[in-house]
Amino acid sequence: MSTALDDETSTVLGNEYDGFDREVDTYMDNPKLKKVGVNMQWTEEQMREYVKCSQNQDYFIRNYVKIINLDEGLVKFKMYPYQAEMAETIKDNRFVVIKTCRQAGKTTCAVASMLWHILFKDSYTIAVLANKQETAIEILGRLQRAYENLPKWLQQGVVSWSKKRIELENDSRVLAASTASTAIRGYSINFVYLDEFAFVLRHVQDDFFKSVYPTIISGKSTKIIITSTPNGFDLFYKIWTNSVENRNNFTNFSVNWWDVPGRDEKWKQETIANTSEEQFRQEFEAEFIGSSNTLISPTTLKKLVFIEPISKNYSDTLRSYKKPDKTHTYFTIVDTARGSGIDASAFVIIDVTVYPYEVVAAYSDPHIDPLIYPEVVYAAATEYNNSFVLIEINDNGQQIADILHLDLEYDNIVYVNTSGRKGQQIGGGFSGQVQKGVKTTKQVKRIGCSNFKTMLEKDKIIVNDFDILDELSTFIMKNASYEAEEGHHDDLVMCLVLFAWASNQQYFKESTDTNFREKLLEERDKLLQDELSAPFVHDDGTEHEQSIINREQTPGNMIDPRDYDPWYGLDRANKW
Fold this sequence. Notes:
Elements: E1 26-27, E2 30-34, H1 44-55, H2 57-64, E3 66-69, E4 73-76, H3 81-92, E5 95-100, H4 106-120, E6 125-130, H5 133-148, E7 158-161, E8 165-168, E9 173-178, E10 191-195, H6 202-217, E11 223-228, H7 235-244, E12 251-255, H8 265-274, H9 277-283, H10 298-303, E13 311-313, E14 318-320, E15 330-335, E16 345-351, E17 357-365, H11 373-383, E18 388-391, H12 397-407, E19 416-417, E20 425-426, E21 434-435, H13 442-457, E22 461-462, H14 466-472, E23 475-478, E24 481-484, H15 491-503, H16 506-511, H17 514-533, E25 536-539, E26 546-549
Parallel strand pairs: 5-11, 5-12, 6-9, 6-10, 10-11, 15-18, 17-22
Antiparallel strand pairs: 1-2, 3-4, 7-8, 8-9, 13-14, 14-17, 15-16, 16-17, 19-20, 19-21, 23-24, 25-26
């Protein structure tokens, strides 16, 4: 761009006269846009204004950015104090997460800041991403409108101008697309703007950050700006909470309804009357609220917290929160999927030594092969003191149990007795039908949901895991039962439901009682010693003589203390 001054040129700073020939210097016959290569004749005052704008984003926005006002039409953007602070926060920080109420002008602030970046930074690429492509295009349209209403001496020449993309002669550009892991693949992005990120599907959120975030942080000045109204306990909630707790590098900024001029208590009551209390809390008080009719009350969900894992394995699918303690007892609940990418194979490991019980590890993977899955369960359960393992055996869960027990020779599998009026019972004596695991029947699920709700709402269990919290926020009432809301998952939650069912069993209460376990071990040791030292009485059936023979102390004849473990519910030495 030429910056030659002409003393005879008018000092008018607007578009009335700026040395611009609208007959030949427009882009694609658009009189509001300048084409590439136009030599502008600037006044000295225009030059000073250009420098001032390039150095001061706030000055540029207040004096030269125009927006559409619903009542007044095209007007200068008169920023409220919180909007000016928001725009500066976007400019001055690499990673920003903004939680706002509805209709607070967050997108307009972001558009104004993006416009300043592409005008005064060369070779600068911005990606505008939203939950829908139409929304991203609409945001880019706002930027284009603001650009068209700039004085020509502030504009860069236009190379490309479409509803999904603009490119300027300083090699800066803006792209618009829906939020997806492939949306900006192949581009070198300086500034990623994620609008209404909480309304992007959960799995898309995860895939996007796994794909895009490593590329963004590889630069020293690249940015990620996230703005949204809350929408449950999703990745936006996780990023926001971690920022507030100083567990990530994001700068947080919040806008509530009372920050917006003209909104008072009367306005609040009118809005609630026209909507609902819950809707107002989420959309205007910017609270994180789960779906309606969730198993766990909104009050309890709001109190739940998550922590960052101390370690991750298997491509972050196994998350550990506490190291194994050799003096503690652990319980693992296993749910199995087909590995097709729809539902996830999942397990949760819980420390049941003392109240409150605590989730110490969690695993979920929708793609793992069912034949490999038992090895993951085996490794994790073994690490946590040969944890008790309760397997949900609906569908192909029985196959997992068989591989775990027969091929991997894992002995601490919880057996369930299926006979009797009480339904499925852990243990249950030496009679009846016994299976390696539990089937999720209506009765089991009903008892499990009821117990889990009580445990969580009375602070008797700590979940720790963010993915569990996410699933709880969408675990809702459906057809007289509870399941995941459409488009969401409940694999981890169902592990906890089965744990809650098991925790109500008498054998669970006895086997997790420290005094009972110590007494049981003492009895086992005494029993083992008695069996090894006692003579074996043999009746040959002919002369009714009793011959005493020493019992051979071979592994096949020795008694394993686990043969009498109440978790199994039968004499393991004889059940074969």
